[in-house]
Amino acid sequence: MDSENYRTPGQLIETLLAERGWSNRLLATVLDVEESGVSKLISAKKAVTPELAISLEEVFEVPAEKFLTLQRNLDLAKARIIVRPNPTRALRAKIFADIPVVEMIKRGWINVEDVRDIEAIETSVSNFFGTGSFDQVNSLPHAAKKTDADMPASKAQIAWLYRVRQIATDMLMPAYSEERTKASLVKLKSFLSAPEEARHVPRLLAECGIRLVIVEGLKSSKIDGACLWLDERSPVIGMTLRFDRMDNFWFVLRHELEHVLQRHGMSEPMLDIEIGTEYSTTTEEKLANAAAADFCAPQAKIDSFIARKAPLFPERDFLGLAKILGVHPCLVAGQIQFKTGRYELFRGHLAKIRDHVLPSAIVDGWGDIAPVGVA
Question: What is the pLDDT of residue 178?
């Protein structure tokens, strides 16, 4: 029997009774229920429960699922009549699905007192992104690296970029000087000997006209850094320090500095996530990766060491190489780990750096909110 010919389970029951020549009273007797209950089933005033559906299956030899499907469809049809469309509910779902609103509120990026106040949220989100509506949010021109080049930047990544730009806009800085930036590379190289030397980086970049902004990444954003421009004379480097390691900090920083020197990111929207992977295919990213890797530790020296010492890599020789190169062992360890895929090597020489950088930098995150728009 095709249940598609019926709109309610009562209609199906009524047909089955007619086929057998049964009355409501007889069915009530068979089911051991009140006759009024059968009448209510047929008139759709009473719902078919799973237990009753099984009883009807036993009586009529019709699968219980047919009765329950008709009941479900009837309930849904009734609900559609009673429940009116609610555009606010749909809008709320879209906002919370697309944008990490709750985290942005907690981080102080948008000012909303009640997360249920959808109008206030939409207004705050639109103001944050500088758009007429939250669904008009677009990525910013920037240069960096994306693991999957075919995937657009997520809203969490875009929100992070906007926060970096928002903070950078409030920073007073001289005009960018490419000459000073190139000259600063030598000075930056001298900071590779110890984690605490990284405290000098924000000041040195500021002297070059480069705004360094450290913003803790939003959850699951998987972004290390990016280069963007407020205008052609105002480059910005944003970093997350999501990996609290000296080698990662210097690789990301030098990677973004190369984008600045090459003036990448003024118009092309690209993104840096998973810095140091081999997924990069663009010329710009290969150039930035090569500059960063060679800055941390000359690649010819690292490749030669691996070729000569693999697979044992004696620690005495490893430390000797770091000393010859004049860099902290962490930078050599990071390169060897990446090139060999053996991340268990030299883990005892991996140095943390976040606590050395944050005190001298403009920071947003880790419990702090950068002052934006404060006179």
Answer: 97
How much is the pLDDT for 329? 97
Q: What is the pLDDT of residues 163-184, one digit of tens each?
A: 999 999 999 999 999 999 999 9
Partners of 231 in the β-ladder = 234
The rounded distance, in Å, linking the Cα atoms of 314 and 299 is 19
The length of the chain is: 375
Q: Integer distance in angstroms from the first to the last C-alpha of the chain?
A: 77
Structure pTM?
A: 0.77
CATH of domain 3-82: 1.10.260.40
- Spatial CA neighbour of 251 closest among 331, 145, 348, 352: 331
3-state secondary structure (DSSP) of residue 343: coil
Q: From the centroid of its chain, how far is CA 258?
A: 25
- Strand 362-364 with 211-215, pairing: parallel
Q: Which amino acid is at 300?
A: A
CB 319 within 8 A of CB 336: no
Give the per-residue pLDDT at 123: 87
Within the chain, how many helices (H) and strands (E) appear?
17, 4
User: How many other CB atoms sit within 10 Å of the CB of residue 272?
Assistant: 29
362-364 β-sheet, strand order:
225-231, 234-239, 211-215, 362-364
Separation of alpha carbons 118 and 193, rounded Å: 51
Q: What is the DSSP letter of 4?
A: G
Residues 122, 89: Cα–Cα separation, whole Å = 13
- pLDDT given at position 270: 59
pLDDT at position 148:
44
The residue with tokens 């657009």 is 152
- How many CB atoms sit inside 10 A of residue 124's CB? 19
Token duo for residue 293? 């890797």
User: Do 218 and 160 meet the contact criterion of CB atoms below 8 Å apart?
Assistant: yes
Domain extents in the chain: 3-82, 87-136, 141-375
Quote the crossing angle between the two packed helices 329-340 and 246-261, to the nearest 10°. 80
Please tell me the predicted confidence (pLDDT) of residue 268. Answer: 64
Report the C-alpha gap between 245 and 337 in whole angstroms. 13
| Dihedral sign for Cα atoms in the order 333, 334, 340, 345 | positive
Strand partners of residue 368: 365
What residues of the chain score a pLDDT lower than 50?
143-150, 374-375
